[in-house]
Amino acid sequence: MRELNTVKLIFGLKVHYLRQQQGLSYQQLSDRTGLAISYLHNIEKGRKYPKADKIITLARALDTDYNYLVSLDADKRLKPIVSLLHSDFLKIFPLELFGINVPKLVELLSAAPDKVNAFISTVIKIVRNYHLQGEDFYKAALRSYQDLHDNYFEDLENAVRRFREGKQELQSPPLLPRQLERLLARHYGIGVDREFLAANPALKEVRSFYSPGRRVLFLNSGLSSAQENFLLAKELGFQYLELKERPYETRMAEADSFDKLLNNFKASYFSVALLMDELEIVKDIEEMARWERWDGDRFLGLLEKYDVTPEMLIQRLANILPRHFGIQDLFFLRFFTGPDMKKYEMTKEMHLSQLHNPHANQLDEHYCRRWVSIDVIRRLSALQGREDQERPIAGAQISRYWGTPNAYFCISLAKEGHNNSQNSTSVTIGLLVNDKLRQLFRFLADPNLPIKDVHTTCERCGITDCEARAIPPVVLHHNRVKEQIKEALEVLEKEAKVE
Fold first, then answer.
1. pLDDT(485) > 90
2. Is the model's pLDDT at 172 over the cut of 70?
3. With 90 as the cut, is the pLDDT of residue 29 above it?
4. For residues 362 and 254, what is the distance between their CA atoms, to the nearest angstrom?
5. Beta-strand relationship, 393-401 and 451-454
6. Domain map of the chain by residue range?
7. Closest by alpha carbon to 401, among 329, 463, 336, 331?
8. Dist CA 7 CA 349 (whole Å)
9. Is the pLDDT of residue 50 over 60?
10. What is the spatial distance between Cα 459 and Cα 480, in angstroms, rounded to a whole number?
11. What is the topology classification, in CATH, of domain 149-275?
12. From residue 241, how far is each of 148, 237, 291, 349 by CA, in Å?
């Protein structure tokens, strides 16, 4: 079916392009061919594919030949669009999610083929050069989908409320794994096994696996109660929301369809919303807004109140702040590093309202060591081995981005790796500092709140007195050399005109 639709689209695209090239209106083409205007319109939209006799008539009217119209190839100007139609992009990218259908997209692309084709060719080359896969598009589409909805999904919040109704054990935090386990058994006949994964060395990295045939949720050993809470509540989400296309492992080894990735997100959202009641977390933020001083230990108390992981708490703030407090300019980052802490990898990011200054860099450059995201990991590393240091640590600062007018209030939580305490991760929420944010959080006026000038990567940073620089600003230096050459040539040209 997909191939048939592609054939129709390519045929319609050629008819549309040839008609425009000859300056023919629908009425004029209708007069030449005897085909109804509505029928011609449907051909160009890719909705109709005419029979051979009508194709011959169209070819004569458009001064081309039959074979060209029915072939799946095209001339140079249309070739990039045809290549796009043949590519996996339209097969994997969820256009419908954003209210776009393929015929409408083709119509937009064919309106100005020369410029659009140059753009498409550029995109295709970038995709090829950077080895972007379907999974990359899925994840980018999901982030855009979250941005489109300000990362708040009322249908999922309402689903959580309906699920919670009449269940006394779900009315006050923290929820306990055994409570969620009983709900899985009572409502869906799903049992929990905590032994099988732990007994198989090949599965030590798998936190959980759901077997639909056995109706068993397998959990690995060594999980904290907060991690078990998330996994159990997530399975409740899959079942209650009746999400059929889904992963069965905790983390998908490969996102081979957007629906699977989206449903995984929905179940995760359900889990976090179930563990952290919307109205209750709103009260917590309102209380935090009244703090005169930033208090990291007090903030960490929310992890204990709800028995959740740092990422769940930070993600929940990213749900609630836009909806209930009008704080829509924010970002979320997750970092990972190994025991040597030489390389910090950004493993997840989300931006709401705009592409904010801190962002992923795929050029293997060194992220700014002044970021609180990295600072808390370093602090955590310094504390490792101490008996009194088991829980995550918190950090906060105002980050002023060098060369821009933007500053962000950032909260970051760092914790040890699940299977290897030498590995570390941090999660960060950053809020654009503006009048609205200053009015909400009193502690932003705290003179003891750290304020640091930061950049995205060391290679591009012009901060001269940075004590944490990992590498010289080689990219910045290269750009300055080019600018100096340009300025020198401009001076030379001006002197030549004077002479």
1. no
2. yes
3. yes
4. 20
5. parallel
6. 2-132, 149-275, 279-472
7. 463
8. 38
9. yes
10. 13
11. Arc Repressor Mutant, subunit A (1.10.10)
12. 22, 6, 38, 26
Which residue's entry shows tokens 């799946």?
A: 72
Reply yes or no on whether the pLDDT at 110 is more than 80: no
- Strand 216-219, strand 191-193: pairing: parallel
pLDDT tops 50 at residue 1: no
One-letter amino acid identity for 46?
A: G
Same CATH fold, 149-275 and 2-132?
no
pLDDT above 90 (res 137):
no
Burial class (CB in 10 A: 0-12, 13-18, 19+), 183: buried
Single-letter residue type at 126: I
CATH architecture designation of domain 2-132: Orthogonal Bundle (1.10)
pLDDT 10s digits, 377-402: 999 988 876 655 568 999 999 999 98
CA dist., res. 235 & res. 224, Å (int): 17
Nearest one of 243, 1, 244, 24 to 102, comparing CA atoms = 1
DSSP state of 55: H
Q: Is this model's pTM higher than 0.85 or not?
A: no
The pairing of beta strand 393-401 with beta strand 191-193: unpaired
Collapsing DSSP states into helix, strand and coil, what is residue 416?
strand
